[in-house]
Amino acid sequence: MDWLRTNYDRAAVLAAALFLVLCALFIFLSASGFSERFSSLQNVPPPRHQIPAGKAPEIVAAMEKLKAPTQWSVSGRSGLFVPEKHFIGADGQPATLQNTLLHPPVPNEWLEEFGLPITDADVLLQDADGDGFTNLDEWEGHTNPVEKKSLPPYTVKLKLRSFAQEAFPLIFSSSVSDAYAINNVDPTRPTQFLHIGEIVAGTKYKLTGYTEKFDTDKYGTTIDVSELTLEQVDTRDQVTLVKEKRATSPESVANFVYTWSGVEENFSVKKDQEFSLKPLEEIKYKLLDVQPDKAIIIDTQKPNDRIEIGPKR
Q: Is the entire prediction scored with pTM above 0.85?
């Protein structure tokens, strides 16, 4: 210990020299084994990154599908996006086929059922099958708009443009044998009992015919709906009085508009007057009644089937 205290500098030099010798020895030993380790690394084959057998067939099949051409075509967006129809409603807000009637009064489902172009603004005015009837006509007639042989009645093209209605002053109240009781809407006028061929006093109408009829009301009760026919002696206009019912005067006029082959025809018909429609002019129709929102007509060949003619939109 005394030597170290007196020779401290020498001891430090010796320790440093010993450390350097040890380091040199370690480097020498490491360098001598490097060539062997390097050659062994060169002989190791590269790793083979193989797809697990369980997934390989699925991936190969998917790759083959991607190489194959598309078997269908999509109009609009494709890929990750699925196209959906959207429209702008009358209120300016987005609308869909589920919550908005795009072409009133025709339901969206009816247009899509027959493959009609629902996105076209004039789809109701189009004639899908070229039979002379628009898609709106076909819907109103409950027919197939894409089948040319499926035709609605020609009356679907007839619309009420305006009307002038007057109440008939006489009422058929009852009958006794071959005598018929005629009342006047004016309560000061007495009841008249007349026979067929006689003229109603104070008028130019005579009795020309009587038809006994019965019907059933909504409660199942049988009611008398017999008809008495009167004729104006000058104009020969006829009016039919149903028992205990007010009638419309023959002077009442319905103004119709009829569209065929793109041409509008306006004409007027008096109550109980007959008329025809193109192109089947051999069919005769008769105006029975006219009201603010509709006219009632019949095909004279089917007198029991009443046809309502709505107003022109």
A: no
